[in-house]
Every structure is written in C-alpha cells, then in structure tokens.
Design brief:
This protein has 117 residues and is α/β, with parallel strands linked by helices. The chain contains four helices and five strands, in the order E-E-H-E-H-E-H-E-H. The protein has helices spanning 27-40, 58-73, 85-94, 106-112, and strands at residues 4-10, 13-22, 46-56, 78-81, 102-103. It has a five-stranded mixed β-sheet. Helix 1 runs parallel beside helix 2 (58-73). The termini are far apart.
C-alpha cells in the first residue's frame, strides 16, 4: 500500500492527514511535501493526523523528528492526533511523547496547542 498525504491550513496551522504506510519507500515524499508546505506558507505549527495511517517504521519517525526540529527553530509547535493503536505504540516506545503531545483528534489538537486563529 502506498501513502496518501492531504494537506490543509486551518487557524494558521498546517494539518497533514496521512493514509497508508509511512516507511522507507514513502518517507522522502512526505518529507518533501511537508517542507514545501511549511516554507511556502511560512507555517510555524503542524498537526499530523494519523487516523488512517496503518503502518510506520523508523523512517517515519525520522520524518516527524526532522519537521519537529525545523518548526522548533521557528518557535513553532507540533503535535500528532488520531494515532491508530500500532502507530501510537511506536511513537510511545520511541519517546516521541516527551517532546510532543498526541491528541484525540484535530479539533482537540488545535485547542490543546493554544494556537490563536
């Protein structure tokens, strides 16, 4: 299965909805799409929605950490939401939740990040 990335801007936040598999085959594509959207829109905040993400490996973790570092340099915030149980477990085991929060859904993520529209 391939990966589909849907990008939307809401309340000044880039929201990326990922569906499929984020692995070594698709990580470069996602990295390029997110970087382009962040730079083009001068975006400082990012929510990654993993509701339809069925699989992620260490390459996916690298994509997440790279975007986190990029946004941190801009004093931005980043969060994930709607993670499936398997993806949530990988994120938890990696220690990612020490630097960002996983929210129940996009609405809660936007409110939890305290991003002003």
């Amino acid at each position: 299965m391939r990966l589909k990335v849907e990008i939307e801007f809401q309340r000044g936040v880039l929201i990326a909805r990922l569906a499929g598999e984020l692995d070594h085959h698709t990580s470069d594509q996602v990295r390029a799409q997110l970087d382009e959207a962040i730079i083009r829109r001068q975006c400082e905040h990012l929510v990654l929605n993993f509701k339809d993400l069925q699989f992620m490996d260490s390459s996916g973790l690298g994509v997440i950490l790279g975007r986190y570092k990029l946004l941190k340099q801009k004093n931005g915030k980043m969060a994930v939401c709607d993670a499936t149980p398997a993806v949530y477990r990988l994120l938890e085991m990696s220690g990612l939740f020490k630097i960002m929060t996983c929210y129940e859904n996009e609405e809660v993520a936007l409110s939890g990040m305290e991003v002003v529209s």
